[in-house]
TrEMBL record:
GO terms for molecular function: hydroxyethylthiazole kinase activity. ATP binds at residues 124, 170. Substrate binds at residues 48, 197. This is Hydroxyethylthiazole kinase.
Length: 269
């Protein structure tokens, strides 16, 4: 493992806690509370601001914008597009979670509009969603990916080069790339799939990390690794979904640079 890369990944955790980035979240109603709480435990400051009349001005006060398309309604759609426009004008990093884009065509229309008038710095989705956006066949069931992950890295690289952004595909293995350099993370636990919104929480953490670090690739790797290692730690104590969900947030709070470096299972490409 490249120790200098891993050192930078671990250092991002301290950068988040030192800078306490304000993460402007336009996210889905199923997991909004969990996203806010995990951001607080990570060391960031969450703001769940989605009113159309407020988002343009609020984005410029923020360290990052996180847009999650999970329960997209008309006001959220218009707010996300306007917020991303403001992010482009004010050079605020944008993390997009394209929830259910492979199942609902409307989501793709919104993504294309954001790319047209705003910007996206990181696309973080499950493997099925990323494969779909890359123009490949994917196996999904609603918001969940049933894909095995074969060819996922190649799809991430193609999508990253197409949109000139960081792309992360999460699953049994997590694939992150900037189009040139890539990381494959093999940490985590199956219990993360038994908790609603674990992917949304990862997206929020990516927003915090990108709001604290100039290196968006390393930041994204760090956020996803943090979630996975916290999941492993939580599962040692809580082996059922309800208690695991609570302990997961505790374990994010208790993370350290040393724990990330000791526990990381990362292959660099």
């Amino acid at each position: 493992m490249n120790n200098s890369n891993l050192d930078r990944v671990a250092k991002t955790l301290s950068e988040v806690r030192n800078k306490m980035p304000l993460v402007h979240c336009i996210t889905n109603y199923v997991t909004i509370n969990d996203c806010a709480n995990i951001l607080l435990s990570y060391g960031a400051s969450p703001a769940m601001c989605e009113a159309y009349d407020e988002v343009f001005d609020f984005v410029k006060l923020s360290s990052a914008l996180y847009v999650n398309l999970g329960t997209l309604n008309k006001e959220q759609e218009e707010a996300a597009i306007l917020a991303s426009t403001s992010a482009k004008i004010h050079n605020i990093p944008v993390v997009l979670d394209p929830v259910a884009c492979a199942a609902i065509p409307k989501k793709v229309q919104v993504i294309n509009r954001i790319l047209q008038v705003g910007k996206i710095d990181v696309i973080k989705g499950n493997i099925g969603e990323i494969k779909f956006l890359a123009g490949q066949s994917s196996k999904v069931k609603g918001v969940d990916s049933l894909d095995t992950g074969e060819g996922a890295l190649e799809c991430c690289i193609a999508l990253s080069r197409k949109y000139n952004c960081i792309v992360a595909a999460t699953g049994k293995k997590d694939f992150i790339t900037n189009g040139e350099n890539s990381a494959i993370i093999e940490n985590g636990t199956k219990m993360l799939t038994k908790v609603t919104g674990s992917g949304c929480m990862v997206g929020a953490l990516c927003g915090a990390a990108c709001g604290a670090s100039e290196d968006k690739f390393t930041a994204t790797v760090s956020a996803i690794l943090s979630m996975n290692i916290a999941g492993e730690e939580a599962f040692k104590i809580a082996t059922a979904p309800g208690s695991f969900r609570i302990k997961l947030i505790d374990c994010i709070y208790e993370l350290s640079e040393q724990r990330l470096k000791e526990g990381a299972k990362i292959t660099w490409k």
